[in-house]
Amino acid sequence: MKIIILAGGGGTRLFPVSRANKPKQFMSVNSGLSLLAQTVKRYLQLVQPSDILILTGNKYLNDVREELRKIEALNVHIIAEPCAKNTAPAIALALKYCIELLFVNKYEEIVVAPSDHIIEPDDIFAEKLKLCLEYAKDGKLVTIGVSPTRPETGYGYIKIGEKYKKGFYCEKFVEKPDLRTAELYLEEGCYYWNSGMYIFTLDTFVSELREHCPELYKFITTKSYSQFNEKFETLESISIDYAITEKSTRTITVLLEIYWNDIGSWDSIYEYLEKNEEGNIQIGDCKIIDCKNSMLISNDRLVVALGLEDIIVVETDDVIMVAKKGETQRIKEVYDAIKDRNVAHEYINTKDCGKVVLGFHKEQILK
Predict the structure, then answer these.
(1) Reduced to 3 states, what is the DSSP secondary structure of residue 204?
(2) Do 114 and 241 fall into the same domain?
(3) Radius of gyration for the chain, computed over Cα atoms and rounded to the nearest angstrom
(4) Whole-angstrom Cα distance, residue 200 to residue 20?
(5) Do 309 and 241 belong to one domain?
(6) For residue 290, what are the domain limits?
(7) pTM for the full model?
(8) DSSP state of 280
(9) Strand spans (E) along the chain
(10) What is the block-wise mean pLDDT of the chain (367 residues), using blocks of 10 residues?
């Protein structure tokens, strides 16, 4: 079995903590380890370090190496994507690496996972993954669905259909819906969050490429790994869902019935962290007076809130972000509006590059 961890995203919805030069996979929100390091450790329960591949951008190579050093997983393979082309080309590139450099056979099981999710507890997740691997050996392309707990507009959804053993065939994939549609999905009960995890054998994936994505099929079957790298920028930018999973008749979903959070927005961080009796969270040098259901995070300066409800405030040395809770999926709009300024890409005049915010723990929350 080989594990491919996707660690090239920019995490713009967690601005101002996540920046282009230090995206969210290098943050810690529940331990001393980054989300990336926790993800690697999760899979080290099942495989050796040499069975793990991390896909990332060139500018993050040193950050990835540093995170691996912290957990003494130095034999993990690191693949630098020549440029950002979404998940389908990236996964195909990693599989070509497996074929040519790791001599993986066509029956090898492959697990593709994001680098920035929280899944608890790890041991039960490992048991669920074993079930997914069993179905992958049957020739299925397995996705993992998560029971929705709220009408979330920041996730994709999977509509389940007929049963397949302990899983379900996928009837439909839906991109991030608007709020009303997400509310309807929650009411219907047959829509699940798409976790972004995929399990298959190499043979199954290549067969699906042949049928649904001939350009990538040609690259993975006729070009060397170095040629694939050289021509990577010519490929269409397309997700694995658009390229394969939503078209395939082999796609099934196994439901994950434990805690899962993709830490994709400040709202998701608020949902995850412990709160006081008024529903407030405060981290760093903060003072909350007569507020409800709010979160304040201070990196350096004193942040004071009075008489507020459903507000999220994040202070770093160079930016103060204030948003209404429930609207933080839209922070990407803020990022896009200021992306021509240096502050969108790196910390400006910072003392310690987000010393509190980039490493806050549950026990740091002030009640």
Answers:
(1) helix
(2) yes
(3) 21
(4) 31
(5) no
(6) 266-349
(7) 0.90
(8) -
(9) 2-6, 52-57, 77-81, 109-114, 118-120, 141-146, 157-164, 167-174, 191-201, 251-256, 259-261, 281-283, 286-289, 295-298, 303-306, 311-315, 320-324
(10) 93 84 85 91 96 96 96 96 95 98 96 95 94 98 95 92 97 91 95 97 97 96 96 95 94 96 90 94 95 95 96 92 91 83 58 44 45
The Cα 259–Cα 121 span in angstroms is 7
Asked if residue 360 belongs to a domain, the reply is no
The reply to whether 179 and 234 lie within a common domain is yes
| Pair (314, 215) in one structural domain | no
* Domain identity same for 7 and 112: yes
Nearest alpha carbon to residue 80 among 205, 232, 222: 232
* Distance separating alpha carbons of residues 233 and 235, to the nearest angstrom: 5
H helices within 202-337, ranges in order? Answer: 202-212, 214-222, 225-231, 240, 266-272, 331-337
Give CA–CA dist 184/214, Å, rounded: 36
Query: Is residue 52 in some structural domain?
Result: yes
In total, how many domains does the chain have? 2
CA distances from 27 to 10, 32, 275, 354 (A): 12, 9, 20, 10
Tokens of 322: 């204030």
pLDDT value at position 245? 93
Whole-number pLDDT of residue 351: 44
